[in-house]
Design a protein that fits this description.
The two termini are about 35 Å apart. The chain has helices at about 5-15, 35-40, 60-75, 80-90, 105-110, 110-120, 135-145, 160-170, 190-200, 215-225, 235-240, 250-270; strands at about 20-25, 50, 95-100, 125-130, 150-155, 175, 210, 230. Helix 2 (about 35-40) crosses helix 4, helix 2 runs parallel beside helix 12 (about 250-270) and helix 6 runs parallel beside helix 7 (about 135-145). It is built from twelve helices and eight strands. Helix 2 (about 35-40) links the parallel strand 1 and strand 2 (about 50). An eight-stranded parallel barrel has the order 1-2-3-4-5-6-7-8, surrounded by nine helices. By secondary structure, it is α/β, with parallel strands linked by helices. It has a single domain (about 5-265), classed as Alpha-Beta Barrel (TIM Barrel).
């Protein structure tokens, strides 16, 4: 069983929901990435999604686009991102790390070389935004052989035939994009998300995390009431943007701790 599956199993036994924060590797400075990852773990992250900076992040809104631009100005590459994970693992052997990004850097390195390097670095899962299931079979096979999880995105418009395919290929958890748009949008429709969760669970036993549109404690609490995991990214990037660099890690930890309390609060509310 993977570290991701172990984490979700432990949370299920506790009656809790997963909190999955996202940051972009190398933003705002490569020297801060590992300390920010540690701050997320200390702030209550169950899984960390670490973004691989890319020049054309088509699924991302302006906030995460800016974070990629800042990282790329520092020359941060996929190899650097793997180095950050390796360094993080020196002090944290428990928190799962998922690399989230686009196909181009993986193809440039070579899919098999990437799978080997990810395993060696201590990566637990990989989410490639622009690998549809029809094109991801080779990646899934390579990651499966190395006990790494392939995470897939689902959207409000994903057809049932595609749901069946993703349910077969997905590992660890599925990431449900809560809206028809890019990251950081604000029009979260909780009723639609709740209905969609019920439908998705007809096709898979994997945990389902919800992201895109979760901006604060209130939206995190609401999503945690209907999903297995809450994924939050743009709001964290904004916290990093506005903080002095020497206080970025502490500020990120404090902010995520508040989200953690809200996610756990959804459990308490449900129990009343």
């Amino acid at each position: 069983m993977s570290r991701i599956a172990d984490t979700f199993e432990a949370l299920k036994r506790q009656g809790r929901k997963a909190l999955i924060p996202f940051i972009t590797a190398g933003d705002p400075d490569p020297k801060l990435t590992v300390s920010l990852m540690r701050a997320l773990a200390e702030g209550g992250a169950d899984v960390i999604e670490l973004g691989v900076p890319f020049s054309d992040p088509m699924a991302d809104g302006p906030v995460i686009q800016r974070s990629s631009e800042r990282a790329l100005k520092h020359g941060v590459s996929l190899k650097d991102v793997l180095g950050f994970v390796r360094e993080f693992r020196q002090q944290d052997a428990a928190t799962p790390v998922v690399l989230m990004g686009y196909a181009n850097p993986i193809e440039a390195l070579g899919v098999e070389r990437f799978a080997d390097a990810a395993q060696a670095a201590g990566v637990d899962g990989v989410l490639v935004v622009d690998y549809p299931p029809e094109e991801a079979r080779r990646l899934v096979e390579l990651l499966d052989a190395r006990q790494l999880d392939t995470i897939f995105l689902l959207s409000p418009t994903t057809a049932d035939a595609r749901l069946k395919e993703v349910a077969k290929l997905g590992r660890g958890y599925l990431y449900y994009v809560s809206l028809k748009g890019v990251t950081g949008a604000a029009h979260l429709d909780l009723a639609e998300v709740s209905a969609r969760m019920a439908h998705l669970r007809k096709f898979t036993r994997l945990p389902v995390g919800v992201g895109f549109g979760i901006r604060d404690a209130a939206s995190a609490r609401a999503v945690a009431a209907v999903a297995d995991a809450v994924v939050i990214g743009s709001a964290l990037i904004q916290e990093i943007e506005k903080a002095p660099r020497d206080k970025a890690a502490a500020g990120l930890k404090a902010y995520l701790s508040g989200i953690r309390g809200a996610v756990d609060g959804s459990r308490q509310k449900a129990a009343i």
